[in-house]
Structure formats: structure tokens, C-alpha cells
């Protein structure tokens, strides 16, 4: 069909605008025609027919066709089928009546990644209606509807002005927090001309250490910072990124939720602003001041290890790819101007020198942690490792283990022999322990599936968990009074998760009892330190919640096993909490779906029964690991 162009003169005039406020006359309303008025207000139709033009009738109610839900469904389906021919051949997905999505509308949950304090094997049997098939890549835990509300009543609280307390907050920050997180230049940390966003971040991070700042309401400050951050992120400055990074250092303290809702979004904002500012590009040859170059490197690597550690701890994929950065690694010279009272390159305060050392070490350790995550905890790596031999996996793990040993000799061992007050090295030590835990957590199930000897790796697991217990046992006032990085609470929790995983991997009473005792003792230590040490309180709460969720999962399964003649090791929910929640982790007889996949399953003896017919005490021969000799320290 030919299409002819229409000239400007041939375009019909637009219809005259008619206001809804002008009601039609009664005659036009009955005939359902347009009521056109002349200049005098008379209706044109009534004038032509010489009938009175009245306005007494009211609009007639609309007649709606009553349709049931069942009747409307086929109509919608047919419309969709007509609009898209492929819809008719698309298979329908059936849902069970008990599916959470049917009971509670559209089910939205928290994604459970391959890392994190929620071991995926602890929750895989729950909420099958949400697609928690062990053969799939995604797992979700339902969250209550109360967590969806972003509104807060905190803004109604009366809080003292930030400006009136800014000087005090800055002095407390430089004295107590700057040595542990030497991100800022000292002159900026003490400056009264810093941005309000940075002033609010400093107030949030310091108010826990001073009674003078208790009048500042935390929720009001956080609400102001998060709302301001969204605006400043449109055109960020270096100071904007610094404020956001400092905010994440206190983001977990005082939170009632151990899943840190919203924190991962803040990390994403930090990474996005860093990219906007080009912090991922090497600036060593740029024509900018040397102090700015040092500052850019500090900010970038602070953002880098925040991304890697929280990606690991929260079970999220990292925002960063090393292929897209050329920024040089941090050195101590990048902190030369951190102490304004120092006339040399070395700061005079010993705790500040240690803090700088730990900051650089954390950046180096984050690079090794990233290698662990890339090799064992990405979805693509899980698929690739299914096709390789067990020796190949061991070679990868040994290579990373060697890097961790070299890192420990270069960064951790030298500073652990020194004594300071406050001692800021605790965060670095638990970070090193966690990196080793995650490496072991990545290789254990893969070697199990190949029926390889694990005596050496179990020996490493005993050594690293014992070191974590010793760290909590020997906490003294010099470490308890120091500032701890916010990822430390999650790191302590991850060690407990690893112990629970090893308990569920046990196939004999000796190993099961050992990990039972280790986990129970570790949780008691965390609970004892909880009132005065927030990372321990956070970790103990996270382990309690994990045990509570696991108890819900295993309760019904244990009843089914015992009813069919099996042995059930899961206690009831009340008994589990009464016994320190250890029983919640103590059931290797949990029902298992039979699918084979790459992380800690609930019951490996059911999954690969033939693989475990050998007596573990003799697997390693004369050099086998002697579990009978294990005692609590």
C-alpha cells in the first residue's frame, strides 16, 4: 500500500479542548453526544431542535461486568497468546499449594551466596517452593515483611547538632580511630572546613567512644548520611568516597540484623564513585600534587578491600575485576603525611605506625582473598572445577596457601611480637585466619567428592580454628579497647560457621565430638566477650541465628528419620537453645536430596556412601591425622 505524504495545509485541525468541569446538558447526556455550547452558553443541539436545555440530571452509574478470578484468568492468557505467538507453546510452570510465593504474594528473599555466614548447605532443604533445588546456582532465605520498610521514625528524635560537636568528634577520631584506619590526611581529619558528609561520618564512627557525644542520635546521623550520600554520589569528590568508607567501618555496630541490610548497596556506591573519579587508574605519572596521588591510592585500596571482604562475608559477587585496574599497590610512603607533628617520613605515634602497616597488609591480603574467591567461590569456577582432577585442586590450594604463608611472614608475624596500647592488630589477625578458613571451605567438598585423603587438610582446619579460639581466649584490654574494622564481626562468625560445617561432615563419633566441643567452647568465649566487645557479640548473634534457622530445617527431618527407624541427632528448638544451640549443628543424619554438588552437603554418607566405606583413622596410613589425641586447649 502506497503512503502519500500530507502537506501542512491538509492536516486536520485539532479538536478543541473541552474541560471536564463543563457538564453536558440533560439531552446530550441521554444521547451520549458532545454538548457544544455557543458564545451565549446555549447547547447547539438543543437550539437546533428547539427544546429546553436543562442541567438537572446526574451522571448515570457505569455498569461494570462482574468477573470472577477464575473466569478472568483464561481471558488474560488468551490476550497474551494473541499478542505473542510463542506464548502458546511455552510450558506452564506448576507451583505447589504450599509454596511461599502462593502464601505470601510475591516472595522476596535474601540471596545466600557461596560464601558468608549462611553456609548454603544449611539452608538448601528450606523453601523448596522458591527454587532451592541443590542442583541450581541460587538460594534464597525468606525475610519478614518488616525488613522491607525503609522508613524510620528516628528523624523525630531530638538530637544535638553535628556542628556543635564536630571539633570534639574530630579530636576523638584522630586519637582513637585514625591509627586503626589511617585513610584520611591528618590535616583533613582535624580541619574545620571538611564537608558536612565527612563530619557526619566522623561523628558516627566516634560517638561510641565518648560520653560527650551520646546526645547525637545514631539513627538521625545515619539517615542524614545515607540521604546525602545519594545526592553527592552524582558528582562525587575524594572526600565523598572517604566519608562513605568511614561509614562502613561502623555500619555493623549496633545493628539488630546480622545480614547487614543495605551495606552491600553502600559498597556498590563506593565502587561506583571510585570509578567515576578514576581511582582505578594509575596516577603516578599525572600532573597532580604528590599528596593527591598518595590520597587516591589510599582511597582506592580501602575501597578494594572493603569490596572483597564484604563480598566474601555477605556471600555476594565482587563489584571489582582486577583486569580493570592499574593502580599501584600501597606502600608505607603513601602515608607519610598522616601525622602532622612528624617532620620525617615515619610517624611518631607507634600505634599509628602499626595501623599504617596493617592498612597496607590488609590491601595485600585482599588480593590473595580475591584469588580464593575467583578459584573456588564464583559460579563459573564451581562448574569448571567439576571437570578437573583432585590433584589439580590441591595444587591450586597449595599455591594460595604458600602465598598466605609468605604474607604472614612478611606482615603479621613481625607486628605480633610488639606490644602497644591500644593494639590495632586484632583485625588483621582475624582477617588472616578467615582467609585460611575460606580456602579450606572451598576445597573440602571438592576433595570429598573425589574420595581423596583429607588428613593434611583436616590438620590445617584444626590448626586454624584453634588459632581463632586462642585469639578470642587471649583478648586483653589493649586489643579490646582498640578500634576493630567492621568486617571483623563477620570474620569471627565465619570461623564458627566453618566449625559447624566440619561437624556436619563428620562420619564418626570422635570427629563429631571434637567439633561439637570446639564450637561450643568458641561460642561460649564469644558470648563472654559480647557485652564489652562488639565483634564477639555480633558473631555470637550470627551463630545463634544460623543455629535457629538450622534447627527449623532439621526438626521435621529428624522426626521423619526417627519414625522410620533411623537415628536422629537434631534436638527440638527449645532444647537446642537450652544447650547453647550446639545440638542444632550436631545432626549428620539430616535428610538429603541425593543430588551431588560442590559445597558442604548435609549428609555426605548418604550422598556418596561408597566414598566413606574406608575407616578414616587409617586413610592417611602411618602419617594419618590422629583425632583421638585432640583436646580442648
Q: What are the salient characteristics of this protein?
A:
2 strands, mainly alpha, 51% helix, disordered C terminus, extended, 633 residues
Verbal overview:
The protein is mainly α. The chain has a domain at 166-307. The protein has helices spanning 26-31, 44-49, 69-83, 100-103, 120-123, 162-177, 186-190, 196-206, 218-232, 238-248, 263-276, 290-314, 350-376, 379-385, 390-416, 426-449, 455-473, 477-480, 487-505, 509-529, 534-563, 573-578, 604-607, and strands at 109-111, 140-142. The longest helix is centred in the C-terminal third of the chain and has 30 residues, at 534-563. The model is unreliable at 68-111, 125-140, 143-160, 338-347 and 556-633 (pLDDT under 50).
Low-confidence stretches: 68-111, 125-140, 143-160, 338-347, 556-633
Proportion of beta-strand residues: under 5%
Taking Cα atoms only, what radius of gyration do you get, to the nearest Å? 32 Å
Main β sheet profile? 2 strands, antiparallel
Could you spell the SSE succession in H and E letters? HHHHEHEHHHHHHHHHHHHHHHHHH
| Strand arrangement in the largest pleated sheet | 1-2
Termini, distance in Å? 90 Å
Report the strand count.
Answer: 2
Structural class: mainly alpha
Shape: extended
Average pLDDT level: 70
Query: Helix count?
Result: 23
* Fraction of residues in H or I helices: 40-55%
Domain Zn(2)-C6 fungal-type: 24-55
Biased composition (Low complexity): 146-161
Region (Disordered): 1-22, 56-109, 141-161
Protein name: Zn(2)-C6 fungal-type domain-containing protein
